[in-house]
Amino acid sequence: MEQQNNEIKDAYNDWAAQYDTNHNHTRDMEGIAMRCTLKDITFNNCLELGCGTGKNTAWLLTQAQHLTAVDLSERMLEKAREKVQSEKVNFVQADITQGWSFVKRPCDLITFSLLLEHIEDISAIFSKAVHVLKPGGYIYIGELHSIKQYMGSKARYETPEGTKELICFTHHTSDFFKLAKLHQLDIVEFEEHFDNDDRKNIPRILTFLLQKK
Ligand SMILES: C[S@@+](CC[C@H](N)C(=O)[O-])C[C@H]1O[C@@H](n2cnc3c(N)ncnc32)[C@H](O)[C@@H]1O
Question: Any idea where the Methyltransferase type domain is (predicted)?
């Protein structure tokens, strides 16, 4: 696992310079989906896992009193730090498959935006998340839809040597439902998001809003 995560880290360090400027419908749609899902809720302590270049960080700060934003890639974090300067945010470089010493206080929102496809054992991550979540706290997940993953879509970017595909793990939509049930999380919302809102096509993004009892 360590070797795989090192490869993922190297790839994001390489991708960071162009991540924000690439044409990337998945990145953009997830940002819209997240705002739509969380717009009516405010939070004290938010944990943004896999914050990347901070696409969602500034917006989350409008809903939260304090935010810890975590990412594996130093270069992605550098971009996020340039973008978001606030006393309310604490950026941390860490691998979320390892210890969660970056959590200093119980959270009332944990977000995963386009991260879980890089995590093989999402069950272990759910256990850690539920452990640090306050009762009544929320978990938000925004992922490339499983159907897109079955069709071969995955995180990729262009390099002078050609297209670089990242290490990804397919998670079935039912896996998220099963994990929610296992951890006694209420499914507040499950939504599928379609390109141009065209429901005759296959969905691109799935989102879950889960709540700890
Ligand atoms: C597709 S990017 C998404 C970034 C941002 N959330 C967004 O929606 O634009 C995935 C991010 O997850 C991070 N990541 C991947 N594996 C990770 C791990 N094991 N621990 C922490 N971050 C990880 C990557 O470094 C990358 O920044």
Answer: 47-141
